[in-house]
Write a structure and sequence with these properties.
mainly alpha, 85% helix
Length: 249
């Protein structure tokens, strides 16, 4: 019992030390810029433009990678249809693995496209010529990403022999997951648990901390970011009630 308590105190001490280090560093930087009256090396507009260029480059990379993997899936699917029994299992695993990569990169491209569209639109309004311009290329990128995700789902239906709609309901998603084999289900359960634990224990607290320091520097509360982070956090907590109710019937 004593060793267990020492281990607990040690882990808690490490977390407090990490939090204090981050807080001390952030506070020192904010205090330096505030006391000296200096500004950041780049303006907010320049930072937004740099971020926008980076997002567009990453979008192209993720979009191309998704197409690359979906082409490989189609090739593997043709081989799978004509394969022998001793080859089919390996081809099935390869096909689904590449399709998972295609889904991930297609999803990433969608997120990047939406972020680029929002930032580009915000940048246009900041320059006060909203009536003269529109981020047409970013809009096309978002449309292309949506079309790609729809095609990736179509390929998924083909290789799995399913009829999943483009916008499935929660019930349809559950039914699809339950058709996976035992190893796939275990992997999904494991990664879902890790996502929830990391979100609640590290990522969201880190977002709160970053928003706190950003609010101190800008001298205004980042209300929208705080609301989004809090809603996600509260959603995780509320879902714990559902888990408890269903398990302890």
């Amino acid at each position: 019992m004593v060793k267990k308590q020492k281990g607990t105190f040690k882990r808690a001490g490490k977390r407090l030390l990490i939090g204090a280090s981050i807080g001390g560093l952030g506070g020192a930087l904010i205090g330096y810029f505030h006391a000296s009256g200096q500004k950041l090396p780049v303006s907010q507009k320049e930072l937004t433009e740099l971020l926008l260029v980076s997002l567009r480059i990453l979008f192209v990379i993720s979009f191309v990678l998704s197409i690359f993997y979906i082409v490989q899936v189609l090739q593997a699917y043709k081989q799978y249809q004509n394969s022998r029994d001793d080859e089919s299992e390996e081809l099935y695993r390869t096909m689904n693995k590449r399709h998972s990569y295609a889904v991930i990169y297609a999803g990433v491209s969608g997120v990047l496209a939406v972020l680029s569209l929002i930032l580009a639109y915000k940048l246009i309004f900041a320059d006060s010529y909203a009536e003269m311009s529109f981020p047409f290329l970013d809009f096309l990128a978002a449309i292309a990403s949506g079309a790609l995700q729809g095609y990736v789902l179509k390929v998924y239906n083909r290789i799995r022999n399913l009829n999943m709609p483009l916008v499935p309901t929660l019930k349809e998603l559950k039914n699809n997951i339950m058709q996976m084999d035992e190893a796939e289900l275990e992997a999904n359960y494991k990664i879902s648990f890790e996502i929830v634990m990391n979100l609640g224990g590290a990522i969201l607290p880190g977002i709160y901390l970053a928003l706190f320091f950003l609010s101190l520097y800008l001298q205004k509360v980042e209300l929208s970011g705080l609301i989004v982070a809090a809603v996600i956090h509260l959603y995780i907590m509320v879902m714990q009630f559902k888990m408890t109710k269903e398990y302890y019937k």
